[in-house]
Design goal:
Blueprint lengths: L3 E5 L3 E7 L2 E9 L6 H11 L5 E8 L5 E5 L9 H11 L4 E8 L6 H18 L3 E5 L1 E9 L3 H10 L3 E6 L3 E9 L3 H9 L4 E7 L1
Antiparallel strand pairs: 1-7, 2-3, 3-6, 4-5, 4-6, 8-10, 8-11, 9-10
Helix pairs in contact: 2-3
Length: 201
């Protein structure tokens, strides 16, 4: 189904060394671009004597949002190899940061490309790949008299309820699979006063 994608089950690290330089690949679960600075700041504090913090990430079901950064290394020698590793692994919602401790010997652009690729690969090799299902969050509002009808739809479709308020006027926050949402929302619409899209999960 086209709402299935792959990511990593947990954060992981891997190390690659070349001519005295050490490259530490750090693969992290990543879903919000606004969290990037905080993550990078934390890594920089943990590796305060490192010289470079190059990274790449992919976001979205199809990895349609992406970015690569060389952080002072020659253009295309760090961020792009990291991104290519993510592409090869066919995973998304992942950030890979490669921390470089300089060993005193210049590696040249080919050497850097290989080092950043291998450090990224080492991190991802230690990160368990997982299958994910794309879901959206909706809030529905309905009268209490429609409670049974609404709950029957939710139960049959096996929809997860994130939050709910049951009163004269009821509200439920639902997590609905993208592939199935059109049919489910059509059924819910018959019993609801309002259906509001909140955000993707």
């Amino acid at each position: 189904m086209d709402d299935i994608y792959y990511s990593i089950a947990k954060d992981a690290e891997g190390i690659y060394k070349d001519k005295g330089s050490k490259f530490i690949g750090i693969a992290k679960q990543f879903s919000q671009e606004e969290n990037l600075k905080t993550i990078l700041d934390t890594i920089k504090k943990e590796h305060s004597t490192a010289r470079h913090f190059c990274y790449a990430y992919r976001l979205g079901i199809n990895g349609e949002i992406f970015r690569a950064n060389d952080d002072g290394e020659p253009a295309g020698s760090a961020g792009k190899p990291i991104l290519n590793t993510l592409l090869s692994a066919q995973i998304t919602n992942v950030l890979v940061v490669v921390v470089r401790y300089f060993g005193g010997t210049l590696l040249g652009v080919p050497g850097l490309i290989n080092a950043y690729k291998e450090a990224s690969f080492a991190a991802l090799a230690n990160a368990e790949k997982k299958e994910c299902i794309a879901e959206d969050i909706y809030t529905i509002t309905f009268d209490y008299v429609n409670l049974n009808a609404v709950m029957k739809i939710i139960k049959v479709a096996k929809i997860q309820i994130a939050k709910q308020i049951i009163d004269q006027m009821c509200t439920c926050e639902l997590i609905i699979r993208k592939q199935l949402k059109e049919d489910i929302l059509l059924k819910l619409n018959k019993h609801c006063l309002q259906i509001q899209y909140i955000k993707p999960l």
